[in-house]
Structures
1.
Amino acid sequence: VPTLSAEEFRQVIGHFASGVTVITTAHDDVPYGTTASAVSSLSLEPPMLLVCLKEDSSTKAVVDEAQHFAVNILAEHQPDLAARFATKAPDKFRDLAYTPGTAAGAPLLDDALATLECRVVETVTGGTHAVFLAEVERATSRPGAPLAYFRGQFGRLELQQDEAVFHDVRGLVLGRKLPVGEPLDLTSLAEQLDVPRGSLYHALAKLSGEALVTRDADGSFVVAPLRLEAMEEAARAACAIEVGVAHQTVAAAAEEDVAALRAGLAGFRPDGRLPTIEGWTEAYNAFHERLVAMAGSTTLLDAFRRVSVTPMILSLTRPRELVREAAERSVADHAAIVEAYERRDTAGAIEAIQRHVDNRIAWAHAHVVGEA
Ligand SMILES: Cc1cc2nc3c(=O)[nH]c(=O)nc-3n(C[C@H](O)[C@H](O)[C@H](O)COP(=O)(O)O)c2cc1C
């Protein structure tokens, strides 16, 4: 029977994501602690968990003695603490705020996301580790997100809800539905939008990566004024993605994909007439996303959506109604892209894509108002 090497096992088991804790205990008022991810909930009645500590861990030796320990679940901003407690340094608690636990004085880290005070009821051995089965006597938690550990690295969990809130908040920022240039009150905004404050915080932090949001001197988030240059930069980034996609797909695209692209042109003139600005925007985005989707990469499509400038252009420009002349030009640009695909003409498609972005930017410059 082939045996698995330690290295192979580590590589594979690293795909199991976990949280990160600091297991603490105390002896003669001296605190001990070690970073541990081998922690699991075990039973609800009675409340029990298990912790695996290596035989050579000095914390393990003290837990053996004290038969008590605390589990401090780290928050996402505490990877430094995880690294500090993963050493053998003698002064791991230096300058660290903690409170001795009520039962046996095991240190409870003040900034931990949650703490659980535990009494050992059984110790078993597994390989190089002692497995402490323990009853949880006291537990506290606070709002926040946990530090995560995955494939040997610290990170944060991206909750599905965070992703949804990010997209919604990005739309609100680009659509100028939030006050511009003044500090946002996260608590009341979260209430107003009916989303968790933490998700809102992450959305705004992510948007500051796109320079759509900045931080003021107090660290509050502020919706940044839109600049034409930012719009232009994003439009060119989106164009670069489309040019890359055209390079890759014009010659090789399946007939039905090209047919779907042509079908998308109909959205620009439902019932033979130009639609409302909302209908136009929908058809416009659908056409471009369909084009980028032809490359078959969800990562690329996601990146493309991130630089989508349609709402930015709409907020920067007036009139708010579709301008017939610009719309007609745009329809012609899109038709040229489809025709180049039908001719399998890569250079022609790229030229049409570039001409379209130039027209779009020129139009935005001509009709710009307000913030820019
Ligand atoms: C993310 C991470 C998770 C760890 N998980 C455990 C664990 O579950 N059990 C363990 O014994 N050591 C674990 N370690 C290693 C210990 O933290 C490390 O050996 C530490 O130096 C032990 O300190 P001590 O001897 O003072 O107790 C982990 C280290 C890291 C970085």
Note: The longest strand covers residues 114-126.
2.
Amino acid sequence: MNFAREDLACYSYDAAAVGPLPDVVAFPHTAVQVMQLVRYANRAGIPVVPRGAGTGCCGGALSAHGGILLSFENMNQVLSIDTELGVGMAQPGVTTEKFQMAAERKGLFYPPDPSSARICTLGGNVGHGAGGLRGLRYGTTKDYLVGLEAVMADGHLLRTGFFSSSESYDTTGLLVGSEGTLAIVTKMALRLLPMPEDATTALFIFPHAQQIVRAAQRVLGLGMLPVALEYMDQKALECIRAHGAVNLPAQNGYVLLVEFCGRRRQVEEEASQMSQLAKEEGAVVYDRAIHPEERDKMWALRRALSPSMAHAAEIKISQDVCVPTGAIGSLLEHVDAIARRRNLLIISFGHLGDGNIHVNIMTSGRPAEKRRAQAAVEDLLRVVLSLKGTLSGEHGIGRTKASYLAWELSAQTLVAHRKVKAAFDPRGFLNPGNIFSSS
Ligand SMILES: Cc1cc2nc3c(=O)[nH]c(=O)nc-3n(C[C@H](O)[C@H](O)[C@H](O)COP(=O)(O)OP(=O)(O)OC[C@H]3O[C@@H](n4cnc5c(N)ncnc54)[C@H](O)[C@@H]3O)c2cc1C
């Protein structure tokens, strides 16, 4: 099959980076085809990069070394939703939303909810160990993946958890977040929950970021566990106002979106407590929605943010840093200081409940400003590590953060990681250059 350059170009970027073109793109229909292709690539020493929808934010689904890009567009079927077992099975190319809706039609609930759910795939979610809006209450992809089938570097099929009769090491857990460097996932089994009885979404606007941080800490301190506690800074709101096609409150400020779900009476009590507490902390806007369409309209504000930011600057360097929840206030102060010191627009938002803050350093393509932006990235990562945080909360290391991995991990830990990689992929042809910069 011949590929035009413009066809290959469609597979040469993700949400963070543009890379060289792959030599070919393969669209397997079955695991057997993946096995054959991997055997061939292994013998010939050709790189193989698995790719879902390419929404990753760290350059992980790019063929940086040429070779075969393995796209799962044709393996996009929900295979079963078993209501008795509470388990769904799917191929890797199924979008997260398609799987959520298939579960919902059977009265079940698949909680992992990356904001990209409409387009990203389950294979990519496993590759990056994706989190999302509901992570605080329900956990992330790793908490729902109960088994998988994956093609190993030697072309054999590995079956774990739900698909195997016995297992000593937790290979399922090892493959979550392995970013396509250890094996290629061809089927997965995912745990499903009963649908919550009721849900309420509330939107607050505060004059200051630290008021939101205090409100969030008080909520958690009271033992409430909202489904989502989403934060957006003032610049994020301004950006949506300028570029997003959604209805917004007139006031400017810092946004907190909170969602509660569970039994009706409990949801009602928690939402009322939350609104009281938000008023005490200084919220100037309070709005609440119960009906699904109204709740969806509120969440539209959050969904409008990423597309709006695309208009705000030529380049967006997005860092999904994560700190202990008690350190969020300090992180946000440092981010303001970095923005002032480096004279840059920085937009922050994220999942407050698990300390996962997306810091977006916006820059033009001008060399001097790009250098300042790069310096700001390094300032930020140093601050995060000094606050006992981590470089990536949910987007992975990929290629864009590979050179910083040694800042976080000790030399011994890095050696151990490389040994795991070498045990799974001795020839190093599965997604080379991903996670480990020099592989
Ligand atoms: C607007 C926007 C919002 C986002 N919000 C969130 C969010 O809330 N939470 C979050 O966690 N992420 C978020 N992301 C990041 C991204 O959507 C997730 O990382 C998602 O899991 C990537 O899925 P994908 O199908 O696009 O994977 P890709 O980007 O194609 O690939 C991701 C990684 O997985 C590997 N991979 C893909 N398929 C397989 C497979 N079958 N076997 C083995 N490895 C594989 C790839 O090699 C790559 O390393 C967001 C991104 C955007 C653009």
Note: The mean pLDDT is 95.
